[in-house]
Design a protein that fits this description.
α2 crosses α4 (about 105-130), α5 (about 205-215) crosses α8 (about 260-265) and α9 (about 280-290) packs antiparallel against α11. The chain folds into four domains: about 5-130, N Utilization Substance Protein A, Chain:P, domain 4 (2-Layer Sandwich); about 135-200, Nucleic acid-binding proteins (OB fold (Dihydrolipoamide Acetyltransferase, E2P)); about 205-355, K homology (KH) domain (GMP Synthetase, Chain A, domain 3); about 355-415, Orthogonal Bundle (DNA polymerase, domain 1), CATH 1.10.150. By secondary structure, the chain is an alpha+beta fold. It has a five-stranded antiparallel beta sheet with strand order 7-6-5-8-9. It has helices at about 5-15, 20-40, 80, 105-130, 205-215, 215-220, 250-255, 260-265, 280-290, 315-320, 325-335, 370-375, 380-385, 390-395, 400-415; strands spanning about 45-50, 55-65, 75, 95, 135-145, 150-155, 160-165, 180-190, 195-200, 225-230, 235-240, 270-275, 295-300, 305-310, 335-340.
């Protein structure tokens, strides 16, 4: 039957995820320090042996057996040494029991803080070894407790850490027991131990979630070229596939938007727009500014700047609420984008090209309510709706059978 002492050690090892040997060594080191402080001196060589069954600590002073003693604290002659070990001879080391009678109580008090510190150090070492090779990974976490703006989480190996306030999704509510996913950006070793740079706002969190949810991305059939994100509000993702048989947007969105919807749910409802990347910058910028329609785009390669001219009714869409749409498009493309009225364009306005298919659901001339419902489900392209029956469309939140029939009829008109 294990003692209370051994049970306490086993519990500590389990809770802190550190080895039993490490804890025992730490306690012995703390007891040595406590003995030197109250009974010994810095010149003595002290050893402590801890009985793991009973929890009793025995303190020994170590002395080398020599012919002529010069340092009494470190040496002993052969005759005296045989009192402690009958087989002792010159060159050996003998252990002399110097355990004080009331050492147990005094040692426990004196060693308490040292033990706590040493265990914390060991815990930090374990944390660093566990996570140093896991940078740029997705971590599963459970919210441990919430204290104001401080959110403490248990990571998948029982390590507890906190999510910095600036790395929390704005407006997201956290509660004890909540399961969330985090992005581990870096592991930094500091004087206070390793610091895990975890985030819910990093653009790479979206990338890792896409890799997790979409097999085509994980297998590199679809490549994520760029991500622009305003956490908790909106995110634009540019994707590309070199395989002509694969539709990169359709692969990411999924049937009825189910794939991208799962990611939006994980990110507290953050809207995710999937667009197709193009090596032709003019086409790329035009797509990045969707749902706004552009009329003329002028590129200035040297400055990496683009002047985008739009019709007056498209300008609010192109700019977006508080400049969000154009800001995300600029980050996504890596170009500075200026939105200008077509009336300011000095040149010949190109004639609109006849398109074989309608790009956006706005062209279906549906009611604003239906457009809003489809947009909320991230079904913003006509291509995504083709092939769906009225019954299929009723699975979209807020769309009944009549609404489904209206959408199907509108698609047939533009097909």
């Amino acid at each position: 039957m294990q003692s209370q002492f051994l049970a306490a050690i086993n519990q500590l090892c389990d809770e802190k995820n550190i080895s039993k040997e490490c804890v025992v060594e730490t306690i012995e080191a703390a007891l040595r320090a406590a003995y030197r402080k109250d009974y010994g001196n810095k010149d003595q060589e002290i050893a402590v042996e801890l009985d793991q069954n009973s929890g009793v600590a025995t303190v020994y002073q170590l002395k080398e057996v020599v012919e002529d003693v010069e340092e009494e604290e470190l040496e002993i002659n052969e005759k005296e040494a045989k009192k402690y070990n009958k087989k002792a001879k010159v060159g050996d080391t003998v252990k002399i029991d110097v355990t004080p009678t009331n050492y147990g109580r005094i040692a426990a008090q004196a060693a308490k803080q040292v033990i706590i510190q040493k265990v914390q150090d060991a815990e930090r070492d374990v944390m660093y070894e566990t996570f140093k090779d896991r940078e740029n990974e997705l971590l599963n976490a459970i919210v441990h407790r919430v204290d104001g703006t401080n959110v403490y989480v248990n990571l998948d190996n029982k390590t507890t850490t906190n999510i910095p306030y600036d790395q929390q999704i704005p407006g997201e509510k956290y509660y004890s027991g909540q399961r969330i996913k985090l992005y581990l950006d870096k592991v930094i070793k500091t004087t206070k131990g390793p610091q895990l740079m975890i985030s819910r706002t990093h653009p790479s969190l979206v990338k890792k979630l896409l890799e997790l949810e979409i097999p085509e991305i994980k297998s590199n059939l679809v490549v994520i070229k760029s991500i622009a994100r305003e956490p908790g509000v909106r995110c634009k993702v540019a994707v590309f596939s070199s395989d002509e048989k694969i539709d990169p947007i359709g692969s990411c969105v999924g049937q009825k938007g189910v794939r991208v919807q799962n990611i939006m749910d994980e990110l507290n409802g953050e809207r995710i727009d999937i667009i197709e990347w193009s090596e032709k910058m003019e086409s790329y910028i035009e797509t990045a500014l969707a749902p706004a329609k552009t009329t003329v785009i002028q590129l200035f390669d040297k400055e990496r700047r683009a002047k985008v001219f739009v019709q007056p009714d498209q300008r609010p869409l192109a700019i977006g609420k508080q400049g969000q749409n154009v800001r995300l498009a600029s980050i996504l493309t890596g170009w500075e984008i200026d939105i200008l009225d077509i009336g300011d364009f000095e040149g010949t306005e190109p004639k609109p090209e006849k398109k074989e298919e309608v790009a956006n659901i706005e062209d279906l001339k549906l009611s604003e309510d239906l457009i809003a419902k489809l947009s909320d489900a991230n079904l913003t392209l006509v291509e995504q709706l083709k092939g769906l029956s009225a019954k299929d469309l009723t699975e979209v939140d807020g769309i009944d059978e009549d609404g489904g029939k209206e959408i199907v009829a509108a698609i047939k008109k533009v097909a």
